[in-house]
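Quick one before lunch.
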Amino acid sequence: MPSSYLHCFFFVALLLSEVCGNRVGDSGRYPLVVSTWPFVEAVRAAWTAVDHGLSAVDAVVEGCSACEELRCDGTVGPGGSPDENGETTIDALVMDGVMMEVGAVAAMKYVKDGIKAAKLVMQHTQHTLLVGEPASAFAISMGLPGPTNLSSPESINKWTKWKEDLCQPNFRKNVLSVDSCGPYHPKDTANSCAQANPVGTIESSPARVGLHSHDTIAMAVIDKMGFIAVGTSTNGAAFKIPGRVGDGPIAGSSAYADNDVGACGATGDGDVMMRFLPCYQVVESMRRGMEPKLAAEDAILRIAQKYPDFVGALFAVNKEGEHAGACHGWTFQYSVRSMEMEEVEVFTVRPSTVSMST
Ligand SMILES: *[C@@H]1O[C@H](CO)[C@@H](O)[C@H](O)[C@H]1NC(C)=O
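Model of the 2-acetamido-2-deoxy-beta-D-glucopyranose complex:
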């Protein structure tokens, strides 16, 4: 563990007693930037933008773009998270909390600028979500660079190793496969076929996803005018089934913003989380008066009750500038830059005892 990380950890531990959703900026609450994970450079980029007077939407785009360029954790931007075919695709979303405008792209190929493509959808179409190669074609037609090869030597190596490990883990369930790398067949409905298959037909094991195989940047910005925007960008879960879209581009799941209330950003097992729209729940809870910390924990708990093994986290921030996080199945960190801070600060959130049911 690098010493700088340790240093940061202790620094964070010292700060912990002050957090838990009770930080109210007393001298000018805005601007404010909050992001999942210690994506410090991304927060700095968004802060610089919003501090220079850019809008919340533009600052979110600056921040998430920085993460795409840096390939944060290898799970944002190009060159990471290969799917079963070894291909990297991009999911991204931007939401303007003033009029609840949303632009998003999903399973986008050949274009590395996810958040900029999402902004083009929001600002230059009446649609909300474009997917697949048509999303790429749209982004390129509107001026983004491409087609670009989104694979990197690292993503290809990762994929090659996965193939050598018999394509494990993967996201299939209730399937049979002759050599474990597919083609896969449904287990229950293909009884007669299964019998006809050669001996040695094996069952695919359930995905045991590593802690860094599905990280997302989800960012919220409150600009100087008090306007709120959120954005997300990810290249999705490693070894996903091609065509899979996670929670990243789904408004209300990975992120949500309402100018009257606040915002939320989420990360984790998107396949599960998107069934609960946790960020929508967080914002609606805060609208009805719940504090960010309680709203965040409540949303996480609701998922944990049905999926005790799920891994996920989110942050909540209200328009007073109070922020908090909650998590399940892993220790979560989120980053904040506010008026009262001289640098980006990283907050550590441990899984709440209530929801730690494993
Ligand atoms: C894309 O890049 C990867 C990694 O550098 C490389 O292996 C692959 O051949 C490239 N694909 C194309 C079509 O150029």
